[in-house]
Amino acid sequence: MIENPIESFNQKIKKRRVAVIGIGVSNVPLIRFLAERGAKITAHDRRTRGQLGSIYDELRGLGVEFVLGGSYLDEIRGDAEMIFKTPGVRFDEPAIAEAVAGGAVLSSEMELFFELCPAPIIGVTGSDGKTTTTSLIYDMLKRAGYKCYLGGNIGSPLIYDVESIKPDDKVVVELSSFQLHTMKKSPHIAVVTNVTPNHLDWHKDYDEYIEAKKAIFANQSEGGRAVFNYDNDITRSLCAEARCGVYFSRQNKLTDGYCINDGYIVQFKNGKEVRRILDTRDIYIPGVHNIENYMAAIAATEGLVSDEIIRETAKGFVGVPHRIEFVRELGGVKFYNDSIASSPARTTAGLNSFEQKVVLIAGGYDKKIPFDDFGAVVCSRVKKLVLCGFTADKIEAAVKAAPNFDGSLEIYKLDDFREAVTKAKDIAEPGDVVILSPACASFDKFKNFEERGNMFKQIVKEF
């Protein structure tokens, strides 16, 4: 008789001493899940009881103990048998590493979900485009009639749903490098949209970032499939390391894989076109990068959805909030929210989505990503530039050092975000596009990119 992973885990976790690092979006459902199975939980968080608010009282009611404040990691040593860390905390944090060296098992909400989930998982990662690609895959599968679950870095934490998921269901997850860094199990179908420098404030270097991304396909079992962007140098090279790699390319004709032919997304096998899948003109959401996102989603769902469903999705899928999201038109000026663009590469893709030069609002938290190449992009694609946040001076310096900078680009720097948005509105002329596409993370002024994007939309709607 095959052992049920969930039943086995329920027996294993009962009365075990468990440390949960971080009381955030994914770990609160995890704590509930573990508490219901009789684990003895200590929750560690840098916030105070007052800052946790009602969550503290709820978890205390479940029997959870707490270690809070600046020394929240100090009491892990020697006490925990299992440690579940939030993705934002590194595995080699000294207190965690010491506990692991002493015999504690290190895991996370997503790693546990992968161990227990009875359904096949489709996982998507990449420096840019992963949220839209994940959402497209989920939308296609839903339209095809599957019962689907969406989670990981988007959607809702899935661990609490794991007992409801059936083997015939489909699970689609977006995975960040933080989540992948310590994962030892890979999804059945993996997608790597692209890899460019990102999160270098958290990873030790670019090589470590790349290694983290590789975990999405490194442990695939027989029958698994991994989808790679041929046009990206890193992902093209990674394909050779996969058990079963599939390419997609917007810029090149492929002998095998998914590419563009006569304006259509097509599939080639052995040098011959075998499927003419989607007219790229039918894709509702703008930008050539979204053609790539469709290609990745089509490759991931091969054999699962029909071409008719793909075409239906292209015409009906309106995009994801904060990703070149149209906000309003005012006085002939169109305002777009692209707050998700937290890297120069992502903002470059956003700028290239418009035929005209735009009024760009950029800047934010410094992730230690160089802006050298981005400066030239700004000079060629931006009409007027409004900078705000910690990186304002760095972006300005990169723009002025660009070989195509001729001194004519108007650059404005403001400390206050509302003032920056208002300045962009004031300098825009009828027919212009104003876009918030920061090329940086939001943590200098906001909790996350959603909060930043929502504030932008609120300000614009108040004009």
TrEMBL record:
It is found in: Cytoplasm. Residues 124-300 form the Mur ligase central domain. GO terms for cellular component: cytoplasm. Its main location: cytoplasm. ATP binds at G126, S127, D128, G129, K130, T131, T132. GO terms for molecular function: ATP binding; UDP-N-acetylmuramoylalanine-D-glutamate ligase activity. InterPro entries: Mur-like_cat_sf, Mur_ligase_C, Mur_ligase_C_dom_sf, Mur_ligase_cen, MurD. Keywords: ATP-binding, Cell cycle, Cell division, Cell shape, Cell wall biogenesis/degradation, Cytoplasm, Ligase, Nucleotide-binding, Peptidoglycan synthesis. Coiled coil: none annotated. Its EC number is 6.3.2.9. It comes from the Bacteria. Cell wall formation. Catalyzes the addition of glutamate to the nucleotide precursor UDP-N-acetylmuramoyl-L-alanine (UMA). This is UDP-N-acetylmuramoylalanine--D-glutamate ligase. It comes from Candidatus Monoglobus merdigallinarum. The lineage of its organism: Bacteria, Bacillati, Bacillota, Clostridia, Monoglobales.
